[in-house]
Specification:
It is a single chain. This protein is α/β, with parallel strands linked by helices and about 500 residues long. The protein has 3 domains: about 40 residues, no CATH class; about 180 residues, 3-Layer(aba) Sandwich (Rossmann fold); about 220 residues, 3-Layer(aba) Sandwich (Rossmann fold), CATH 3.40.50.300. The chain contains 16 helices and 21 strands. Strands 11-10-12-9-13-14-8-15 form an 8-stranded mixed beta sheet, sandwiched between helices. Helix 14 links the parallel strand 20 and strand 21. Helix 4 crosses helix 5. The longest helix has 17 residues. It is globular and about 70 Å long. The termini are far apart.
């Protein structure tokens, strides 16, 4: 067997059928409305009782075979290498990697810099590795870490990318402070990348950057990368080393192998418990508000499409929204700090806002307002129109603490820095592991006077479907090591914090 290492594609001459498993994955693809309708009509001809599944499954691989030769991206090489070692397969290694994109790190440029736990190890691993994922809890200091990497490799052209335009703005501002004169940006707001060594860009804007120019690619929130357009966009950058950063490097659609082939395996991990132990993040407790009621069609456990279940169980469930609002009013009596309510849809945000009119609504769904006209006929929707600039002003006010009460859609799921926030209410109901880590991460940042942070969720008991989802969210919180607290404990803790 002969293995050719390269920065672009790795070649294995002598690839066998039993090695195919190394690149295979099963992709969950959401069916189109047309596909669902056709399947429903087809099944209704034979039986009255049936359930159409919203997704179909497809088999894929990240390895291209041409006879006995296998080709794959460098990120998969550690997996293939381990397999060959376990099987005792001997091979001849031919190294064609470019040494110019692997300079020795200049640690003198960060001498005197105070590093957090594990960050020195991360820098060393990035210097030694071709690729890898850094799995670190939210509030770990990814922006700081990225700035250090930019400093210790002063000769490399570095591309920093992420899925959110809001995160790009935050990263750009921070990197400009740490690397003055070297940083440009490229995304919807414009292009200042000409002549800059470090470029911060959204994943959508990568098509406007020449891959040959980039020698090191750093992807924040790399869990966005998979069997999708973002994955294709990053794969174009074949002449550089690639590293990803995420608190939750998992793909709900089953394309984890794509993420791995692009960025490699996890090479460094700092979990929540370690971060708390070293005073890097705030302690988190969670509380579940009990909700027993919902529209009758939901309580009957009738089979409905997933979207309809979400809408009637969460967004338009008056009983659930009222339970959340009543908790907020009890909370306000003892806590005068910030409160953030996270929702999945603009419709849900508006319905909650009707019960909590002193809150502001933050969203990025300006195009959704017209579509809500029929669902919220008695609501003057013009008040919810929000430009990108107004949303940015709202975010900055919330970061400063001058704005206290906000209901936000997923536009604030990541890339925001709310150090003073101690109470986050999850009204979204999502069972996604990514959301279950990213959303609570908004309260994880340490600040003076914040001994503990609280994630408030709903214990939805009104249907089999809702109970199952509640159980999944609880499991994820327990997996993170967050203890559950009763309402009185939460109120007493916050009352004590306010008195100090």
């Amino acid at each position: 067997m002969r293995v050719v290492l390269a920065d672009t594609v790795i070649e294995v001459d002598g690839w066998t059928d039993d090695m195919d498993q190394l690149g295979e994955y099963t992709l969950a693809v959401r069916k189109t409305p047309e596909e669902l309708r056709e399947e429903k009509e087809r099944r209704s001809r034979y039986t009255r009782k049936f359930k159409v599944k919203p997704v179909r499954f497809e088999e894929h691989t990240v390895v291209e075979r041409r006879g006995d030769v296998g080709y794959f991206l460098p990120g998969l090489w550690p997996r293939v290498k381990e397999y060959l070692k376990q099987k005792g397969v001997d091979y001849v290694l031919e190294d064609k990697r470019d040494p110019s994109i692997r300079p020795k790190p200049d640690y003198s440029r960060i001498s005197g810099t105070s590093l957090r736990f594990g960050q020195d190890v991360t820098l060393a691993l990035v210097a030694l590795s071709d690729c890898g994922i850094i799995k670190c809890t939210t509030a770990y200091g990814k922006s700081f870490l990225i700035s250090l990497i930019c400093k210790i490799f002063p000769t490399l052209n570095i591309l920093v990318t992420t899925s959110s335009a809001q995160v790009v703005g935050t990263l750009y501002s921070y990197l400009c402070q740490e690397n003055p004169g070297e940083v440009g940006y490229l995304y919807g707001r414009g292009n200042t990348s000409h002549g800059k060594r470090i470029v911060v860009s959204t994943l959508k804007s990568l098509c406007n950057i020449s891959p040959e120019r980039v020698q090191l690619l750093l992807c924040d929130e790399c869990h966005s990368i998979g069997h999708n357009e973002y994955g294709k966009a990053v794969q174009r950058f074949m002449f550089c080393r690639r590293f990803g950063f995420s608190a939750s490097p998992v793909r709900n659609d089953g394309s984890n192998r794509v993420l791995e082939s692009i960025f490699g395996p996890v090479i460094q991990e700092v979990d929540y418990q370690e971060a708390v132990k070293h005073d890097m993040v705030a302690k988190i407790k969670y509380h579940m508000i009990q909700v027993h009621d919902a529209p009758n069609i939901i309580k009957s456990n009738k089979e409905l499409p997933e979207f309809m279940l979400k809408r009637l169980s969460y967004w338009a469930n008056y009983y659930r929204n009222l339970a959340i609002a009543e908790f907020v009013y009890r909370l306000k009596k003892v806590h005068d700090g910030q409160i953030l309510i996270m929702v999945e849809s603009l419709e849900h945000a508006i319905r909650l806002h009707r019960l909590l009119p002193f809150f502001k609504v933050a969203h990025g769904g300006a195009n959704d307002i017209a579509a809500l006209q029929g669902k919220l006929k008695d609501v003057p929707l013009d008040q919810y129109k929000l430009t990108a600039k107004q949303l940015d002003i709202m975010r900055r006010a919330y970061e400063k603490g001058t704005l206290r009460y906000v209901i936000a859609t997923m536009t604030w799921r990541q890339g925001v820095n709310f150090k003073q926030l101690a109470v986050l209410i999850r009204a979204d109901g999502s069972v996604s592991e990514v959301n279950g880590i990213q959303i609570p991460g908004r309260v994880a940042r340490i600040s003076d006077g914040k001994e503990c942070a609280y994630v408030i969720d709903c214990d939805d008991r009104f249907s089999i479907w809702s109970k199952r989802r509640t159980h999944k969210r609880r499991e994820l919180y327990s997996k993170q090591g967050w203890p559950e607290a009763g309402e009185q404990e939460v109120l007493d803790d916050l009352r004590g914090s306010a008195d100090e």
